[in-house]
Amino acid sequence: MNMISRDLNLVFSATFTAEPVRRSLVFWLEKLGINAAIQYENQVFKQLLDPYSAMRQNSGINVILIRFDDWFRVEDGLETEIRKDALLQSKVDRNIVDLLNAVKTSVETTSAIHIVCICPPSPLMEWSTETACDYKEIENRLYQGLQGLNGILPVASSDILDLYPVADYYDFHSDKMGHIPYKQIFFDALGTVIARKIYSATSLPYKVIVLDCDQTLWKGICGEDGVEGIAVDPYRKQLQAFMLEQQRLGMLLCLCSKNNESDIIEALNRPDMLIKPELIAASRINWERKSDNLEALARELNLGLDSFIFIDDNPVECMEVKTRCPQVLTLCLPENDEDIPLYLSNIWAFDRINTTAADQSRTELVKQNTERNKFQQEMLSYEAFISGLELNVSISPLGETELARAAQLTQRVNQFNFTTIRRSEAELRRICSEENVSCFTVAASDRFGDYGIVGLVVCREQGSKLSVDSFLLSCRALGKGIEYTMLARLGEIAADKGLGEVEVIFVPTSKNQPAGQFLSLIGAQNVTASAENKVYAFTAAFARTVDFTSYLEQADHLREEVHAAVQQTASGSDPVILDVLDDIGRHLNTSRSIHAKVEAASQGKTGERAEYVAPRNEFEKRILKIWEDVLVIEQIGVMDNLFEVGGESIKAIQILSRIREEFEVDLPMTVLFEGSLTVAGLAQSVETSLLSSFDEDLIAEQLAALENLTEEEIELLLREESE
Amino acid sequence: MKLLLAQNASYYPALGGANKSNRTLMEALSRLGHECRVVSTALVNSASEQDQRGVGEIEVISSSPEVSVFNLKGVAIHAVKVRAAMDSARLKDYLIRQMKEFAPDRILISTEDVGHVLLEAAVKSAPSRVVYLARTTLYLPFGPDCFLEAPDKTELLRKAAAIVVVGDYLKDYMWQWAKLKAEVLPISLFGDGPFPDFGNFDKGYVAMVNPCAYKGISIFLELARSFPELSFAAIPTWGTTSEDMKALMELKNVRIFDPVDDMNKLFCQTRVMLVPSLWAEAKSRTIVEAMLRGIPVLASDVGGNPEAKLGVEYVLPVNPINGYKQAVDERSLPVSDIPEQHIQPWQEALRRLLSVREHYEDVSRRSREAALDYVENRGGSRRVEAFLLNLQVEAENTQQSDLVPAVKENTVAQMTDKLTPAQKALLALRLNKKNQSRGNDQ
User: Fold this and answer.
1) Is the ipTM value over 0.85, yes or no?
2) Which terminus, N or C, of chain B has the lesser number of Cβ atoms within 10 Å?
């Protein structure tokens, strides 16, 4: 999957002290190879409303964190008071309206993406007897308001806590003292949710999920157990439901299985299956190599392999696909069935933002295309195919309701895209409102169905020319001549405006050869080339006469090349990121595991953690085991300070009590307060405590045995006897 | 003189009377022309937050992820970022560096040093310059009201040049339980005034600072329930837990306020101050502060509270906390069982104060007079300065050692003290195995 941009400016503003979210965010952005400058600003409303604020000047990502507690703090002589009562209800209502308006203003006037997180409230919100308002109701109202705005990525408090449950997230003490309302483990989870949103917003989305069948969609093997013998266990049921939801959000579901096709269809028709045959966009059920089948599916769907996710339970199949199709995100299901749901919900590639109506009908569109392809094979000539399609192309000015889809096209279309300029809804809206700029959407339909909005043109009057800034057409509409109609319309527009020339800028990328070939084929009167781009100039009079039928023969030859270009994935996915995505799903999928990893990483950075020293004797080994159990962290060295590896006072007490039990010693609490709390230090305290429980004669006897040994011999014996 | 104060607690913002008193003391000594430096912890892990809070008042010198250095009223504060009171290794290392770099003439170690690691570092470095400022009974290493008994730490106290205490109660405690001599000095300063008279029979809150188990929240809550017609104010600070907060919020006549640095903001709205502590307060700062403003105080009869009340009535009975469990909560505070309380004397006192105008006004006036007298005649920073200047430096202090019996000899410790870590570990391992096999044989 390609990143849209790897350099970002992030501006944060929160109603509380949000600095602690930084460390997990830095951790994730580094992991994903995103360079980001992170800036914190006070006063949420000022940031959103002041045209000169850091947020309003930002073209990257703005993150707004809201906690309702902070709205309930009122000035009352004695600084502030936390209380909610009837009087405050009106203040909350007003705040919601004001916030929505402020966010709207900021979104409409900047090109930045806005992530708005509603953070969970403190338990104090629920305790007041004067509760005149229901917190959840307030959150719902704000969330729905945010959903109604374009260009916003809203996050509800349940989105955070459902993905990364933290039972005891509130830190009363630090809220009171420093306005830092959450424990670090929650801040790490919050940073993770924000990082997921940033990842989704800055990455090109995946489009296809290819699923294996046996042991993946169901438990059992169709060919051996028979269709009746396979089972949809609860974990597979969850997997199927997950995939259905992905399909609803715009993913194409395909099957790739080594099986008999009829068995698979029969299996899918079983009443307990959630995924039904009609929901599958395409499939390859045969005994071929899976990598070959994936390539065939890519050709059939006319999509690049780097937009594919492949899911299989079999590590050997996964390895084969990984090796031969490295651009595919290959996910090997966890060995334990119960780990499947957590694994899938932590594959960030499945996160979808900004879905449109077109996404939800994508499977339908693919099926229409299959019919179209069949029809084409039946026709004797390309010409006959084109005329038989009864294609209808409509080009109309871009309206408010089409903004989301238009922005999505700029984000997704790679092959037939002259300049590959990516734009957000806000940017498109702003450009449209500029003087001398025209934006058009292109919709198409034929006898097999409606393609929906498939293209976009943005052009600008510049002197005597109509300069084309964006010209793009979805790959599913290629090969029908729609691009010829689009160019002709540009000719008409130029002529209507009295402009003599249509100037098309072409910026070559590793993927947009189809667009380049189209321009070469038309043959401009004047082409100037530089290192970065080529400028094709057509007279308006010529452009308006461009007609597909005149180019049919050459276009037919080009079609194969277009197919090849679509498959080409030279710039495809970064294999490192693909491995990171899989690693996250497997190992960084709970608030605790993330917290531990972020903790370790941030210590590595500040150099606080001591150099690793492995346990040197039995005492250290056993105490280290207790630390690992209590702290749920691995790779602790015996010289690491408890507080540098994520420990806290309560954990120290738990460790002390476990040590007392394990060694049956009465270790005093004072050992916890003596400065550096390490495994080595505790081991020594245990030794001292143990020694004092033996009588002098016994110790003297044992000491005599050690008397003539060198230090090396002692250490050797210690290691041996600790085994 | 170059003076260095060290405490395992935040200096600014100061939470709790002891830390606030350390601050007013250092500021006063700075005004007298001494070069003052403080090594403290940064508040709630956030040096940057600390920087932000002080905008306008404090001058930030430098800020790093480890330590924030700033100036406040002539005192240089080095706020070290720690994660908990137990996480004192870095604070101790920083103090050791500062003792070398700053070369202080006197090192003031506050009782706010629960593991006594700062005391240990200072005593090892320059015992004849160490002055122990005892403000909190709980954090002493001995006696029935301490949290963690540690005889070896008590020995460290004997090595200090001097022990200074806030009042007679602590002086007696020191002698009774450790045979330590201490000097009572006005190390809790209340500023130069003027102190407005806020006593007001007609309106204002019945207020309590730091409502929590140790400070007697149960009495506060019970009074609030008994007098629904009165308005109560709670100012949660370091001791208040979320459960305490829940209990406070459940009462309609209790309002909850953030802590304020300028106490006048609280006192100007206060009718009666409650200090119903259940643990052995050394000498509650709030009592004197409220009395200075003519606010009657109902205080519990524990520790140094009666002394702080300066002979003015209402010192009321409570069932005090009787020892601590060997455990701490999430804030490193000791855990204890809280005894049941008899609310009746408190109810009667409050009822009388708020129903008889003459009585209220009389108590208000006498409270104010007594407190003003204390501050004017017994509370000057000059006395502390003179004591520090006159302290004998260099000649190692032995004044305390002849007063106490030698610590009981521990033969096992003598036998094993000189062993290398590996020898000790092997010895312990073998003895432990022997012990286990003996256990199995039986």
Assistant:
1) no
2) C
- Among B87, B237, B263, most A C-beta atoms within 10 A, so best to mutate, is B87
Partner-chain contact B15 A718, CB within 8 Å: no
Same domain, B239 and B134: no
Prediction pTM value:
0.68
What's the order of all strands across the beta sheet hosting A152-155? A35-41, A7-14, A61-66, A113-118, A152-155
Eight-state DSSP code of residue B140: S
Return d(Cα B214, Cα A637) in angstroms, integer: 38
CB pair distance less than 8 Å for B429 and A721:
yes
Residues of B in contact with A77 (CB under 8 A): 265, 269
Q: Which residues in A536-547 are b (16+ Cβ under 10 Å) and which e?
A: bbbbbebbbebe
Burial of B57 (0-12, 13-18, 19+ CB in 10 A): exposed
Task: Say whether both B176 and B223 belong to one domain.
Answer: no
What is the set of domains in chain A, with CATH numbers?
Answer: 7-202 (3.40.50.1110), 208-353 (3.40.50.1000), 381-567 (3.40.630.30), 577-722 (1.10.1200.10)
d(CA A691, CA A684): 10
Report the alpha-carbon distance of residue A714 to residue A708 in Å, rounded.
10
- Both B135 and B218 in one domain: the answer is no
Residues spanned by the domain of B281: 205-378
Residues B159 and B248 in one domain: no
Count how many domains chain B has: 2
Q: Which of B155, B184, B213 is the last residue of a domain?
A: B184
CB contact under 8 A, B265 and A663: no
Whether chain B has a CB inside 8 Å of the CB on A702: the answer is yes
Residues 376-405 of B with CB under 8 A from A: none
- Say which of B115, B420, B431 has its CB closest to residue A694: B431
Q: Residues 268-287, chain B: which have Cβ within 8 Å of A?
A: 269
Q: Is B89 on the interface with A (CB under 8 A)?
A: yes
Q: What is the CATH number of the domain that holds B220?
A: 3.40.50.2000
Instruction: Record the tokens describing residue B122, joined without a space.
Output: 């200072």
Q: Which two tokens stand for residue B187?
A: 């190390």
Residue B344 lies inside a defined structural domain of this protein: yes
Based on the fold, state whether residues B71 and B26 are members of the same structural domain.
yes
Q: Does a structural domain hold residue B231?
A: yes
How distant is the Cα of A67 from the closest Cα of chain B, in angstroms?
18
Q: Is pLDDT of A328 > 90?
A: yes
Residue type, A529: A
Could you give the CA distance from residue A280 to residue A308 in angstroms, rounded to a whole number?
15
Q: CA nearest A37: which of A4, A1, A62, A65? A: A62
| Burial of B186 from C-beta contacts in 10 A (0-12 / 13-18 / 19+) | buried
Considering the domain boundaries, does residue B386 fall inside one?
no
Contact assignment for A78 to B433 by CB distance below 8 Å: no
Same domain for B244 and B180?
A: no
Q: Do B328 and A79 touch (CB under 8 A)?
A: no
Mean pLDDT on A674-681: 82
Chain B, residues 307-326, CB within 8 A of chain A, namely: 326
**Same domain, yes or no, for B93 and B124?**
yes
Number of A to B CB contacts under 8 A, please give it: 216
Instruction: Render each residue's pLDDT in chain B as its tens digit; 442 residues.
Output: 899 999 998 888 777 788 888 999 999 999 989 999 999 988 654 434 444 444 456 788 887 778 889 898 899 999 998 877 777 888 999 999 999 999 999 999 999 888 899 999 999 999 999 999 999 898 899 998 888 888 889 999 999 999 999 999 999 999 999 999 999 998 888 877 789 999 999 989 999 999 999 999 999 999 999 999 999 999 988 888 878 888 888 888 998 887 777 788 889 999 999 999 998 898 899 999 999 999 999 999 999 999 999 999 999 999 999 877 777 776 667 778 889 999 999 999 999 999 999 999 999 999 999 999 998 887 778 889 989 988 876 544 444 444 444 444 456 667 777 778 788 888 888 877 777 765 554 4
Residue B258 lies in a domain: yes
Nearest CA in chain A to B430: A702
Residues of A (621-660) whose Cβ lies below 8 Å from B: 641-643, 648-650, 652-653
**pLDDT tens profile A171-207:** 877 777 667 889 888 999 999 999 999 998 888 789 8
